[in-house]
Structures are given as structure tokens and as C-alpha cells.
Design brief:
single chain; alpha/beta; 3-stranded mixed sheet; elongated
């Protein structure tokens, strides 16, 4: 199975350009475009939140759950800037926390055939993920 998706993969789908290197800039461009189209809620200024927030894996994507209840894609864990920016509310999360065993989690989830079964929540170990995968025939 392919690697887990990150925010960089999602920016391509949003059409914000290949030159974008930060989540902040990608979502800023996206919000400006939507505000210009008459979506006034996207004209609100973006705010910074320095509270640490735990990354999870959902459907093959590293992400966080924003306090506005939106799922937010995060940059690759090996990038120096782990900002995650919520397109819905404009919150810039500056302290995305990946689990110490993130590489093992990615490896265990890569054994699953379908992205929609590639999910991880804090508390699950890579061994548990592998056992679950084996018990469901690789799904």
C-alpha cells in the first residue's frame, strides 16, 4: 500500500498551487479565494493556537481534530514546521504532536489494502494494528 497522505497531498487537490510550502500559506490562499467568491465566513482573520494537539490517522491521512470539530490534514511528520491550519475556522495549530512510534504505526497501516481502513487513535499500538489487520484478512 502507498504511504499515508499528508496536508501537502491535500493542497494539490485544493488547487492552491505547487509552490506552497506551508500549511498557513495554502489555507490562507484557499480562504482568500472562497471569501472573494462571497463566502464571508472565510474573510475572518486566522488565529494562532499554541496548545499541543495530538495527531491521529484517519482514512490513510495524518490529521488533527480541530476544536471547531473539523478534521485537519497535517504536514509530513519529518518536516521542520508541523503547523496544521483549519480551513473552516482559520485556527493555526503550531504544536502538532506525533506519537514516538509514528513510523511503526505508518508501517502497520501500510499493510492494509484500503485507505478507509488505515486509521489510528492514541492508545493503539503498532502490534494491535497488525493483529487487527491479520484478523480481517489484510483489510
Amino acid at each position: 500500500m502507498a504511504r499515508l497522505l499528508t496536508s501537502f497531498d491535500m493542497y494539490k487537490k485544493l488547487g492552491v498551487g505547487r509552490s506552497v510550502v506551508t500549511a498557513r500559506e495554502a489555507i490562507r490562499r484557499w480562504r482568500v479565494r472562497h471569501a472573494a467568491e462571497g463566502n464571508e465566513e472565510y474573510a475572518e482573520p486566522m488565529t494562532t493556537n499554541d496548545t499541543p494537539i495530538q495527531a491521529i490517522v484517519n482514512h490513510g491521512r495524518w490529521m488533527i481534530l480541530c476544536e471547531c470539530r473539523n478534521g485537519v490534514n497535517v504536514p509530513p511528520r519529518n518536516t521542520p514546521n508541523h503547523e496544521a491550519v483549519c480551513p473552516a475556522c482559520g485556527t493555526i495549530w503550531t504544536q502538532v504532536v506525533f506519537p514516538p512510534e509514528a513510523a511503526e504505526i505508518e508501517s502497520a497501516l501500510a499493510e492494509r489494502k484500503f485507505r478507509h481502513t488505515q486509521s489510528w487513535m492514541p492508545g493503539e499500538t503498532p502490534d494491535q494494528l497488525r493483529q487487527e489487520t491479520a484478523s480481517k484478512g489484510g483489510r
